[in-house]
Design a protein that fits this description.
114 residues, single chain, six-stranded mixed β-sheet, 10 strands, mainly beta, four-stranded antiparallel β-sheet
């Protein structure tokens, strides 16, 4: 049973920073492309960034230059450094495998005030 646990969210003013963490039980991380997703109220969940096992990254245009995704395979962990946060970044953030997603975790709430 794979479990994904996201943490690190919070309330921050526009322009501030947060670092999200994702830990996974089981073998979900092994050679898997992993992604950070977010879901704002009333909107569909969307991919924010992804990273493959070799460290190649992808970013949604709206976060390029502001967010950095990284992973530590030895710790089955993934991170999202978010800088220069904007109110439109407000959402619940989730992590999951990009291909064949596992059951979604609870996510972590990020709220950016203007």
């Amino acid at each position: 049973q794979v479990q994904l646990v996201e943490s690190g969210g919070g309330l921050v003013q526009a322009g501030g920073s947060l670092r999200l963490s994702c830990t996974a039980s089981g073998s979900i991380f092994s050679f898997a492309t992993m992604g950070w997703y977010r879901q704002a109220p009333g909107q569909q969940r969307e991919l924010v960034a992804s990273i493959n096992s070799g460290g190649i990254t992808y970013y949604q245009d709206s976060v390029k230059g502001r967010f950095t995704i990284s992973r530590d395979n030895a710790k089955n962990a993934m991170y999202l450094q978010m800088n220069s946060l904007k109110p439109e970044d407000t959402a619940v953030y989730f992590c999951n495998r990009y291909f064949a997603p596992a059951d979604w975790g609870q996510g972590t709430q990020v709220t950016v005030s203007s």
